[in-house]
Amino acid sequence: AEAANLPPLTEAQKNKLRHLSVVTLAAKIKCIPYSVLLEQLQLKNVRQLEDLVIEAVYADVLRGSLDQRNQRLEVDYSIGRDIRREELSTITRTLQEWCQGCEVVLSGIEEQVSRANQHKEQQLALKQQIENEVANLKKTIKVTTAAAAAATSQDPEQHLTELREPAPGTNQRQASKKTSKAKGLRGSTKIWSKSN
């Protein structure tokens, strides 16, 4: 608009302005048709446009690809432009939404940590309860064993050992005693019946 009041631009300056114009378009549209680029950049043909885009890619102004079949530029990334006053409200809103999202994620993480701590406390309480029950059972077994040993006037440890494992040959002797008692009883009944 004020070209008459300004000195003429060099070709390098024109290319830089065109690169910045592509960046501005890329911020709004990710797939920019060649027709829009030709009009906005005031270029005469597609060859000049493709050369300009390739220069912008090599200058790391943007990243993307030229789709010659569909006649469009597909933008993956572009540098940022200077912020304008009218964009401040959009930026503020975006940052507020981001902060709200962060708070939601943080509260979710805190809730999970709280649940994990409760689960850990429950498991520790259960473990302590089991250990207490085991200790009580051990005490009860010792007291019972000591009482039984005192009743038979034996050493408690020896009595406990006998309860666990009977002495070798004990089962055989008891079995033979049982059979001999049974034989004696049978014999005595026979004798009793004969004498009657």
From TrEMBL:
<comment type="similarity">
    <text>Belongs to the CSN7/EIF3M family. CSN7 subfamily.</text>
</comment>
<keyword id="KW-0539">Nucleus</keyword>
<dbReference type="GO" id="GO:0005737">
    <property type="term" value="C:cytoplasm"/>
</dbReference>
<dbReference type="GO" id="GO:0010387">
    <property type="term" value="P:COP9 signalosome assembly"/>
</dbReference>
<feature type="compositionally biased region" description="Basic and acidic residues">
    <location>
        <begin position="156"/>
        <end position="165"/>
    </location>
</feature>
<feature type="coiled-coil region">
    <location>
        <begin position="113"/>
        <end position="147"/>
    </location>
</feature>
<feature type="region of interest" description="Disordered">
    <location>
        <begin position="148"/>
        <end position="196"/>
    </location>
</feature>
<feature type="compositionally biased region" description="Basic residues">
    <location>
        <begin position="175"/>
        <end position="184"/>
    </location>
</feature>
<feature type="domain" description="PCI">
    <location>
        <begin position="1"/>
        <end position="80"/>
    </location>
</feature>
<dbReference type="GO" id="GO:0008180">
    <property type="term" value="C:COP9 signalosome"/>
</dbReference>
<comment type="function">
    <text>Component of the COP9 signalosome complex (CSN), a complex involved in various cellular and developmental processes. The CSN complex is an essential regulator of the ubiquitin (Ubl) conjugation pathway by mediating the deneddylation of the cullin subunits of SCF-type E3 ligase complexes, leading to decrease the Ubl ligase activity of SCF-type complexes such as SCF, CSA or DDB2. The complex is also involved in phosphorylation of p53/TP53, JUN, I-kappa-B-alpha/NFKBIA, ITPK1 and IRF8/ICSBP, possibly via its association with CK2 and PKD kinases.</text>
</comment>
<dbReference type="InterPro" id="IPR045237">
    <property type="entry name" value="COPS7/eIF3m"/>
</dbReference>
<dbReference type="Pfam" id="PF18392">
    <property type="entry name" value="CSN7a_helixI"/>
</dbReference>
<dbReference type="InterPro" id="IPR041481">
    <property type="entry name" value="CSN7_helixI"/>
</dbReference>
<keyword id="KW-0736">Signalosome</keyword>
<dbReference type="InterPro" id="IPR000717">
    <property type="entry name" value="PCI_dom"/>
</dbReference>
<keyword id="KW-0175">Coiled coil</keyword>
<dbReference type="Pfam" id="PF01399">
    <property type="entry name" value="PCI"/>
</dbReference>
<keyword id="KW-0963">Cytoplasm</keyword>
<protein>
    <submittedName>
        <fullName>CSN7A protein</fullName>
    </submittedName>
</protein>
